[in-house]
Amino acid sequence: MRTIIKTGLFILLGAISLSAQETKTSFSLDEAIAYALEHNYQSINASRDLIDAQKQKWETIATGLPQIDGTVSYQNQIKQQLAQVPSDFIPGAEPGGFVEVAFGQPQTALASATLTQQIFDGSYIVGVQATKAFIQYSKNNKEKTDLDVRRSVVEAYGNVLLAEESVAIFEKNKATLEKNLYETKKIFENGLGDEESVDQLQITLSSVDNQLKNARRLEKITLQMLNLMMGIPLDNATELTENLDVLTQRKIDYGLLDNQLVMENNIDYKTVFNLNEQRFYELKLAKSRALPTLNAFINYGGNSFSDQFNFLDQGQRWFGFSTFGVDLNIPIFSSLGRSASTQRAKIAYEKAKTQLTEAEEQIRLQFENAKSDYILAIEEYQTSKDNLALAERIENKNQTKYSEGLATSFELRQAQTQLYSTQQEYLQSMVDVINRKTALEIILNK
């Protein structure tokens, strides 16, 4: 018995350990995007909307296919209704008067089935045609959602890398400042320096320490944001396998700027074009309401009558009946109501065509802006990289001059502040390259 318990405990612990290992995941940027497209909450619901649209399509089609309805009813006249008939028709009754008679039996059962078939209905034909546009709308919505998820994951991924790099830089800067402050304090204590130098370094150190604390908080928050975008629990220990500098180098692609804008591939254009299709079918639907509708039906059933409930007994007599019919409905006059509805639908369609033209121009402008922003981001990255090397060299020279007594603490602080600012500009420029390339790719739908 103890052996069984021990074995069970080992299996349970192993399962818990395996589960813990499975929740700790690592992703490259491409892997994070692929994972998010499958597990992001909005993406999941967009997929469900597409399935729902396909079901709605069949729901629309089914309304024009044969429909069968069954009816079963039972009545028990607890107090039967009486009628007066002339006594002349009743044998043995006194002539010239009236006799109270109950017609039929108090209990009645009826069972029937009716088949209906729509033969012609203009609105049904248009509705079936419009389902194609509705399905396309759901597909466009899914594509738009996936592109938004992709953009969000790229931004969140870059922000995590930015926060990690910021923490590393601030830790390095803090260590350097602590060393400088320690040495300056020793010099001051030995009477070879001034107190202002100590104070200047202390101010710089306090500022860097606060920035480090904030960067650590941002590191946690940005990782939680990435987890949210990927559909992972917020506190999951997600690891990023990309390096910010290497990823930035990979995102520099001048060949992307040579791509021509294919308007039909742009998701915003697809959405507005789909709106035009919907307005077109709404106009056809309004016109179809002036057409006649034709429907047919046939039913079959049976009635049974009795003084007591014995309708399920063998031998109980049922009286069958059957009916066939055709309904033709012809719209004749609506006091110009249908005409006004058709005119409104036509106006909405014309507005949609104008919106499509406007959307084309806006997308072209967005494309040019996206190319310009991408070029600027690459140039800013290259410039900030050069500036960082210069700022490091200036700071190192001032460190040397300061240690040799050739520079004041104020000059050193200026050089350090310039370096810290340049470091952040460099990090941000890398993130900008990544984000701007993604924005251009989304417009091109690459």
Question: Could you provide a short overview of the structure?
Answer:
The chain has 446 residues and is of the alpha+beta class. The protein has helices spanning 2-23, 29-39, 41-62, 122-189, 195-230, 244-251, 267-288, 337-403, 409-444, and strands spanning 26-27, 67-76, 83-86, 98-101, 107-120, 239-240, 293-306, 319-329. The strands form 3 sheets. The chain has a 4-stranded antiparallel β-sheet.
Task: Characterize the structure shown.
- The chain is built from 9 helices and 8 strands.
- The chain is of the alpha+beta class and 446 residues long.
- The strands form 3 sheets. A 4-stranded antiparallel sheet has the order 2-5-7-8. Strands 1-6 form a two-stranded parallel sheet. A two-stranded antiparallel ribbon has the order 3-4.
